[in-house]
Amino acid sequence: IPEGVLVTHLPGLNGAFPSKHYSGYVEIESDKYLFYYFVVSERKPKNDPVVLWLNGGPGCSSFDGFVNEHGPFNFETGKPHGSLPTLHLNPYSWSKVSNIIYLDSPVGVGFSYSKDQTKYVIGDRQTAIDTYTFLVMWFELYPEFVNNPFYIAGESYAGVYIPTLATNIIQRINDGVEPEINFKGYMVGNGLTVPDIAFNTDVQVLFLHGMGLISDNLFEDIQVTCMMGNDTDKCNYYLSKVAKNRILVTHVPNPADCQPSHFSLIIDGMNKFNILEPCYHPPKPKADMKENGNWTSMPSLVRNQTVVPNDFAGLWTNSE
Amino acid sequence: GVDDCLNDEVATTWLNNELVRQAIHAEPVDMIGPWVIISENILHNYQKDAGSMIPYHTKLTTAGYRALIFSGDHDMVVPFTGTQRWIKSLGYEIVDEWRQWTVNEQVAGILQEYDHELTFLTIKGAGHRVPNSKPKEALHFYTRWLDREP
């Protein structure tokens, strides 16, 4: 273990760490620093897998995973508001059974940085190369973990980060180079795979209907409209956010002539990340919507419209 | 930027405290700026240049690497309907048909296993960030998959 990376205390935590924690930077090339936080397994560190965790975005810090998902601590909101939270041990931390690296990637995300801002213009391929470089250098810093089974895990846009990184890892093996990483497999949660399928086609509408968020009548109407568009294999649906907490589904029968739409659907007050949960921040009042122009511009687009407000927010009676 | 539906306040408060940054060996705010949950600079300039991931999944799984694809079934951002569709498009043989999986005798979701050690698993009632909304169930499937338990 290199010097100066052991985490000895954390503000907000009263009590002992459940296992060793290490964190710091790896300079993957000149003036390009990636930040990691490494949590050693609470079970059998020498045998348990090493898992690299990546949040998505692109641009999301993996500290979201550490703080809000499966890190070693639960964070109790600070009181008064804005003060430091109190940390408690998380009984469902993934470090219960694995050694886990939270990596801020690509450079420019979270604590990772470069003094040269041009290095923040980056894409999938360079991210995969950089993360691979990080891993090789990381295992040189932590050689006692090099023989552990290694997995990559993440969610959302990490559905792109993970397969591209994994392919870079196995490419070395295919090239006949002695494997530097004992790679075994990967996990992807709610991951992006094919943008056309994930965002632009009828799977979203199937989901909305299956979850009871749109009526049978509207669903059937959409199907008919789709057929009328002469595009039976692939319906061109678009989901876009026209304002915070407001989602617009538009069907474009012929994208070439830029003539939306047979269809628009507005879902107000919806938490699209978890459809039955409220949004953390409350929806803005309609008056604000009108001021920014989004709401007033809507009717010209809309022929059929259904509004499904969340009842908990008291919007049902105020809806139009 | 940060979606209104997400809670980033606790993380933002904690990770921008200088004592916390010192403790975790992160550079100070005046050197690299404040920590934000999503970097808009990256988000808006990022080049999505890798194309579809389906050829990557095919290459990896046919080369013998294990894959667990999981979906919180209440997520509308990347809904399980799309994930189910692309997995089906791989054309792999099903070796374990749709069945429920349970935690403490409660149904926690459904799963289907395919040839080439590919598993598709849903988590009932979970959102986009599965371990955030269903932490117990998430640790359960994570552990069993890593340990090669059924």
Structure description:
The complex is a heterodimer of chains A (320) and B (150). Chain A has 320 residues and is of the alpha/beta class. Helices cover 23% and strands 21% of the residues of chain A. A six-stranded mixed β-sheet of chain A has the order 1-2-6-3-7-8. In chain A, a hairpin with a 2-residue loop joins strand 1 and strand 2. The C terminus of chain A is likely disordered. Chain B is globular. Chain B has a four-stranded mixed β-sheet with strand order 1-4-3-2, sandwiched between helices. The N and C termini of chain B lie far apart (40 Å). Chain B is an alpha+beta fold. The mean pLDDT of chain B is 93. Chains A and B meet through strand 1, helix 1, helix 2, helix 3 and strand 8 of A and helix 1, helix 2, helix 4, helix 5 and strand 1 of B. Strand 8 of chain A pairs parallel with strand 1 of chain B.
From the structure above, extract its key features:
heterodimer; A: about 325 residues; alpha/beta; six-stranded mixed β-sheet; three-stranded antiparallel β-sheet; disordered C terminus; B: about 150 residues; alpha+beta; about 20% strand
Please tell me how large the radius of gyration of chain A is: 24 Å
Q: Please report the distance between the alpha carbons of the first and last residues of chain A.
A: 62 Å
**SS strand fraction of chain B:** 15-25%
- Helices and strands of chain B, in order, run as HHHHHEHEEEHH
- Biggest interface, chains and residue tallies: A-B, 102 and 83 residues
Q: Helical amount among residues of chain B, as a percent range?
A: 25-40%
Q: Radius of gyration of chain B, rounded?
A: 19 Å
- Count of separate DSSP helical elements of chain B: 8
Question: What spatial form of chain A do the alpha-carbon principal axes imply?
Answer: globular
The parts of chain A where pLDDT drops under 50 for at least 5 residues are: 227-234, 241-246, 255-263, 286-320
Work out the number of β strands of chain A.
11
Strand order of the largest sheet of chain B: 1-4-3-2
Element string of chain A (H = helix, E = strand): EEEHEEEHEHEHHHEEEH
> Helical content of chain A, roughly?
10-25%
Separation of the first and last Cα atoms of chain B:
40 Å
* Secondary structure tally: strands of chain B: 4
Our count of helices of chain A gives 7
Range of strand content of chain A: 15-25%
Residue stretches of chain B low in confidence (pLDDT < 50, at least 5 long) are: none
Order of adjacent strands in the largest pleated sheet of chain A: 1-2-6-3-7-8
Outline the biggest β-sheet of chain A: 6 strands, mixed
